[in-house]
TrEMBL record:
Keywords from the named record: Cell inner membrane, Cell membrane, Membrane, Molybdenum, Transmembrane, Transmembrane helix, Transport
Molecular function, one GO term: molybdate ion transmembrane transporter activity
NCBIfam families, per the entry: modB_ABC
Gene3D superfamilies named among the record's database cross-references: MetI-like
Similarity comment: family membership: Belongs to the binding-protein-dependent transport system permease family. CysTW subfamily.
SUPFAM superfamilies: MetI-like
Transmembrane segments: 12-37, 49-68, 88-108, 194-216
CC annotations in GO: plasma membrane
Name this protein carries in UniProt: Molybdenum transport system permease
Domain ABC transmembrane type-1 positions: 11-217
Database matches in Pfam families: BPD_transp_1 (PF00528)
Membrane topology reported for the UniProt record: Multi-pass membrane protein
Organism of derivation: Ectopseudomonas guguanensis
Length: 226
């Protein structure tokens, strides 16, 4: 059975959401992970716990508080309205914001581990050569932490593709605007259209398997080179 237009729109929207979220998460997560890997501050544990909260909190809890805060009576909602931006609830922008919060630990933790594995030796060597912090990051840290960046990007993309509770709470179920694949599968099940649900759910299973295969295959290759 061919996919419907709503199914195809949901797939395209999901890919767009996952791609944009991954890029933004790498930009946001890199300085957080670098700080967590290098700092001796007492704030390290509280910040690390906050970053890891989405790993233990139900997605609906995260979605609920984001919905309230970005709504017309919430702090961020009032701020965006005062700036003439309206509210971000039930919009693609809201989905991106929710996805960033929900998938943040899947980027920060692999990057933090990669930065910690580098150690201080290469950084001190770069400093003795009078390399600036930017030169050190792009010439030393980034190449050495490349496996961590690859893992973080794959996990962020895959985790965003599989979101349900957060995106449903923040974005609702608007075709072509906030209706992603996971929500569309739920719609098909609700209407007992199991054939269409199988097409989308099967695609998600295949996608998840390929992601895990890539992750484990990459780890095995790195181990063999050590």
């Amino acid at each position: 059975m061919p996919l419907s237009k709503n199914d195809l729109d949901a797939i395209l929207l999901t890919l767009e959401l996952a791609s944009l979220t991954t890029v933004l998460l790498l930009i946001i997560g890199t300085p957080i992970a670098l700080w967590l890997a290098r700092t001796d501050s007492w704030l390290k544990r509280p910040v690390g716990a906050i970053v890891a909260l989405p790993l233990v909190l139900p997605p609906t809890v995260i979605g609920f508080y984001l919905l309230v805060s970005m709504g017309p009576n919430g702090f961020f909602g009032q701020l965006t309205q005062s700036l003439g931006l309206g509210t971000f609830t039930f919009s693609f922008t809201g989905l991106v914001i929710g996805s960033i919060f929900y998938s943040l630990p899947f980027v920060v933790q692999p990057l933090q581990n990669a930065f910690e594995a580098i150690g201080r030796g290469p950084l001190e060597a770069a400093a003795t050569l009078r390399a600036s912090p930017w030169d050190t990051f792009f010439s030393v840290v980034l190449p050495l932490a490349r496996p961590g960046f690859i893992t973080a990007a794959i996990l962020a993309f895959a985790h965003t593709v599989g979101e349900f509770g957060v995106v449903l709470m923040i974005g609702g179920n608007i075709p072509g605007k906030t209706q992603v694949v996971s929500v569309q599968i739920y719609n098909h099940v609700e209407t007992m259209n199991y054939a269409q649900a199988h097409w989308l759910a099967g695609g998600m299973v295949a996608f998840s398997f390929i992601v895990l295969l890539a992750l484990y295959g990459g780890r095995s290759a790195r181990v063999r080179t050590l």
